[in-house]
Each structure stands twice: as structure tokens, then as C-alpha cells.
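Feature request disguised as a bug report, sorry. It would help if multi-protein outputs had a clear separator. Right now it looks like this:
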Amino acid sequence: MEQRYYLCSGPGKKDYFSLPSGWEVTDFVESPPPEVAPVAEMALNALTKPAGVKPLRELCAGARSIAVIIDDATRPTPVAQILGVLLPHLVDTGIEKERVTIVIALGTHVPLDGKALENRVGKEVVAAYRIVQHDARQADLVPVAIPGDARKLKANPVVARADLKIGVSSILPHPMAGFGGGPKILMPGVCDFDFIMDHHMRLTVHPNAKTGVTKGNPFHEDCMKVAHAIGLDFSINCVYDQQGEIVGIIGGGLESAFDAATAVCAQKLGHRFDSKVDVTITSTYPHTHGHQFAKGLSAPDVITRETGAILMAAPLVQPVPDFFTASFKAVTGRCAGADPAAFIRETMSAGRPFLPDKAVEFNMAMSCFFLRPRIRTVLASSMVSREEAAAMGLEHAPTLAEGLGRLAASYPKAKVAVLPSGGLVIPTLDGRH
């Protein structure tokens, strides 16, 4: 049988498969091979021809200290390659290395170890530059006033006190913020734990907090408001096609560069579905780090009938933490017999975590499972056991082929959508996201 269709499992890696007989693919969401310049060339163009602000060289004039704020390894941003252009550019403008600090915007994520740090920024950068990993609970966070807002915000001291702030991130579909990257490099990237927790819990459950939506989305709008309060002088945003290949790097002001990048993102990753399908076959790529794979549920949940099924491959490079799957029982226990989804919505709407002893991102990832439609979902992953999948309310298949065989028996005639990279699709159905 012809193996025409594939799922992405890593940068440039496609895993082909055969469809069961009787299945008809109505949507195969793939981009044509991109014809783009090398990353270094795109990065230099972003620095010298930005949107909405002067070229970076001019912005550096008079800056005594510079913070370069980057995302962590849970994002596909080619940080080391961009720094390979950005840092020499700063030196060429007369900025000594000692005046530059690289800040890893972890939000509430765990810090990178030595090897991961070298992979992220490059060995030479580790040796030559000061690097700070943000800690949302550190004692020396700096208070930042938000105009017209009485909330108490504290930010990373290196970022808050820098004369010039440069952000490097990826603009990706995000199930709550509309798009990741841009203002999110500061909020939640370098903010304090309590502020992040309140924001994420309250606004995750807002009806407009969904993929591809920024206007009227309070999750995004509040991130942008906070980013303005902290200040970001220059934003470098990477955009991708539906196979995860980088197709552009856009530099400029906080809002102007974000708007330009999200427009490209929507054009490259948006796909209109005429109707819902019986079966969606998808990969969670580029969300491959542990519980981050939950983001891969967003697009297939929109386009799959509730009587249908989703077959989701999770090409994980880090396992799902044991305590994450174990916490599902803790949630149902705290419900005291109530409906878990209603309990979670009520708790989060009040700005509180439903798992108060767990990190922000674990609460958010777990909410994706409890608040999603009740669609049969088969998780194909060698790094997740049958028991772990069951704890998350999922069926398990060790391979994609086994999952296909199981669903073929249940759906002998099926309309099918194939999303090679489910985390890189912005679905539109009947004109709605």
C-alpha cells in the first residue's frame, strides 16, 4: 500500500504510514517546501530592517547594559544560530561583552542543566557571556508598576534594570494565548510565580482564550500589557511552516514585530476545514517535552466529531513526569464527587490552581485533558505506558501502526484529516477558530 501520508517527529524528520482501506483523507495539512534564506541571513535582516522601530544598531546608542531574553528548549527557536548573529552585531556597535547578559525566560519551567544550556546557546556563548536563568521565586525580583492596574508584579532584576531589552522567541499557535512568543518572552517568561499563577489560572478558561485568537483574548492582552510595563525594546520572532521548518525571522518593536509575525503565522499555519472528520491522525510536534504534548490536542479537538477518534503520535524527547500522571487521581479526589471539569473551571476562574502543590504549567497542561471534548483519543508513544495513558483518559498504542489498526476496526469507513504537525495548525471550521 502506498505510504503517501506522514507525521513529523523532529526537525526534518517525516514518519510515513499507510491508511486502512475504506478511509478517505479530506484534509492533508502540509506546506510546500519552503524557499527561504539561511537562518543567519534572516536574523541579520531582522536586526537591520525591523518593523516599527529603528535598526538595532541605532537603539544601542547610549545603552550601558543589555539583556538578551531567550526562550528555553521547549520551543523550537534556533537560539544558538540567532545569537551567532546578534551577539557579534552588538560587539560591532561598540557594546562590550561584559555589558550583555543572556536571560533564559523560564517562567515557571525547570532550569537547563550544563549540557542543555550549551545546546541552547552554544559552547562559545556559555564561555564568553554571563547567563542568568530566571527563577520565578527568587528573592530579589524587582517590583514593576503596571499603568492603571493595582496588581503587584515583580520581574527578573537583570531584565527590569537593563537599559536595552531584546527578546528572542518563536511565534507558535498557543491553545490559550492565541500565539506563543512575542510578549510571552516577558510574561510569563521573567515574571514572579504568584503573578503568573493568577494570570494563567483565571484567563486559561476564558472563552476567547484559544488558538489563533488575540483580539478580545484577555490571556494575550494581559501578557502584552505586562510586557509593555516591563519594557521590550526589540523583539526577534521566528515563524514556521506546517512541517516545523523556519520560514522567517521578523524583528522590530514589541507590538509591530508581533503583529507582522502572527500575520505570517496565520497565513502559513491556518487551514480551513469544511466539516468535522471521523478520524484525525496527528503528531504533537513541535511539542515534544513531557507534558507539553498536551498542546497537540488543541487542533484535533476542534476538527474531530465527538463520535469520532483522534490518533495522536507523541514523539517525546523527554518523558512525561511520573507525578503528572499520578496527579489525575488527586484532581478527582479533590472534586469530592463533583464533575472534574466544573471543579477545575470554578477553581481556575478564581485565579487558584486546582493542584496547589504543583507548578503552573502542570495545572494548565492537566486542564487541557479535563476541559477538552470527550473524543476518543489513542496516544501512540513508546515513552508513555498503557497505565500512564489511561491515567490521562487516553487509550495507548505502542506504535502508530497498531493505533491505525485498532481504529480501522471501529471506523471501517471514515473521513480522515492528517495533521503532520498538530501543534502547528490553526484550524478554522465554518469560519470560526
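(second protein starts here, but nothing in the output says so)
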Amino acid sequence: MKIVMVDLQAQYRRLRSEIDEAMQEVLHSAQFIRGPQVKEFSDALSRYLHGAYAVPCGNGTDALQIALMALDLQPDDEVILPAFTYAAAAEVTHLLRLQPRFVDAGEDFNIDVAKIEEAVTSKTKAIIPVHHFGQTSKMDAILNMAQKHNLFVIEDNAQSLGADYFSAEGARKAGTIGDIGTTSFFPTKNLACFGDGGAMITQNQELAKKLAMIANHGQQKKYYHEIIGVNSRLDTLQAAVLKTKLQYLDDFNHRRRTAADQYDFRLKEISEIKLPVRNAHSSHVFHQYVIQTEKRDALQKFLADNEIPSMIYYPLPLPFQPAYQNARYKKGRFPRAEKLSAAVLSLPIHTEMNEAMVDYICDAIVKFFKTKS
């Protein structure tokens, strides 16, 4: 049986007639930049996000940079980031001459809200919680902390689009809760295009206008530049693909949850595996299905030997990456992030998985632990 981490080909085959029709419409019009499908998609995404403004851009990293630019932070202002995450948020923080302040991970892979206040100083201006692997951070606690210290909140929602956050105020879509949300439409994301793409999300109309200006060279009217901006566009072909696939996002997420449920059922009796935490405050859309085991490296090799792919997100916490090392951060400073980096393993999960595929993978995992016991 052929197993892949994310089966983009099978998903395309299932939706081919609709996607091809949408792309042909763009090809026939030849409006490859700022064609009508871009606004149609952003309007559809806004409706999906219960009315929040959606501003498309070139990719998820651009979305984070543009979000920080829109908040008018100054060089050497500090931004709180999770230690256990991808480099994008730290990357744009450095590019804008801001200073990252790293915080350890919690049990759910997201930032440990109990440790955030320890990182706040008089120079701290923003916090970027990353909603890891498909479910949100503890946003009520983060918002309370932000209000107390007058901080902006930028949600990195690249992995959790479609997840619902539950609080006393009711259910809200991930990415719509802080001052700005960002997301990515990279081909492996839950809502994915056929190249690069991203978006910023906000409930604030004036902030939405500013985000759109920054993404378009700082202009509202062509050749009249009101602020410093960048060139970050979602092209029309990608917007056409995304508009088509957005109709299926809830179904995509349901299919991923079904596969995750089957993984949970099959692996729950293996004492040497820790299954993903499912938070009560958030639904889970399972961008990744991430287990933890002290035998991670041996298990990954065993799976590879049996032609089953797996991935490690993330093998080295950001504070210890050569590009982001800081003298204040010594080994042992982020114990949970360091432990996760040595133990996490992502198993294949995607919209086209069936029971036979999950069983095949789980059979191999069960066999590995039986031989190692």
C-alpha cells in the first residue's frame, strides 16, 4: 500500500472538474493579477470567518511581516514568540529589527500561557501565539495578559484555519480573536492553493485597509504611496483554486478528524506513545497528527524501512537555532520545547485517508513496539 504524508494528487482528482473550470476561467480572461476571483475569494473567506475582514497576500510569512508593520512597532520593541514553532515569526521579527522574547511550550504544543508574563518587559509590544497542528492557543488567558500589559496579539493561524475557539463569549473562528490573524495557503495546509498564498484577518476595518495598503506597495491609488509597503499579492489563479476549495474546508477538516480518531483508537493502548492533547477550549482540525515517544528516531527509521513517511516538527527549538541564538537562552531554559523536539513525530494525515491506510500505519507502529518491548 502506498502511503504519503499529504495526498495532494488524490484530492485534486476528486475536485478536478470544479478546480479546472475555475482555473480555465482565469486563463481565458488573462487577468492573472488582481482578477475578480481575488476579491471573490476574500469575500467568501470573510463570510466563512463570520464577517472578519480577510486581506489576501503572497504567503503566510508575508502575512506575519505585514501584520507587524501595520502595528507601527519600532526597532528594538520586543515581541513574545513560542520557542517551539517554525521560524517564520522569528524571521520577520528580526527583519523588522524587533527583538524576540521566547516562551516555552505547553502540553498542547502551543505557547505556555503560565510563562508569558515572565517574558514581558517595558519594551514588550506584541505577542504572536502560534496555533499549532490544528487547535488554538488559550486565547482568553492571552487576551487578558495582553490587555493588562497593553500588548497587540497576532494569531499565527497557518495550521488551524477552520478551528473553533470556545469561551464564555461563544464560539469564534481561530484567527479572528486577536488584533490580527495570519494564515498560509501553502499546498499542504488544510485550505491550500497550488503554490504560495496567504492572508491577514482582522475585525478592525481601518486596520484591514492598512494591511491591504502595505501589501500593495503602501498605496490605495496606483502610483500614490501613502506609507511604506511591500509587494505581496495573491495571484488570480491561486484565488480561483482557493475559492473552489473553501467550499470544502469543513469537509476537509472532518476527514482529518476522522483519521485522527482512528489513530487515537488504534494507538491508545501503547504505553510508550503519548497521543495528541485535545483541548476543551478548541476544536481540532488536525493539520498534523503528532505523537510523542522516547523511541522517536528508531520508530521513524522503522516506518521509513516499511515505506511509511513521517516528519519531525520541530527538531530544534528556535532559541537554539544558529540564526536566533541569544546569550540569555541556555540549554534547559525551555524544558518542554526541548523535550518535544526530541520526542515528536507527525504521522501521515490528509483528506483522502481511509481506514485501510490508517490501519496499515498503526499495524506497523504496533509491530515496532512489540519487537522493542
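Even a blank line would do. Unrelated, but nice: Residues 8-29 form the longest helix (22 residues).
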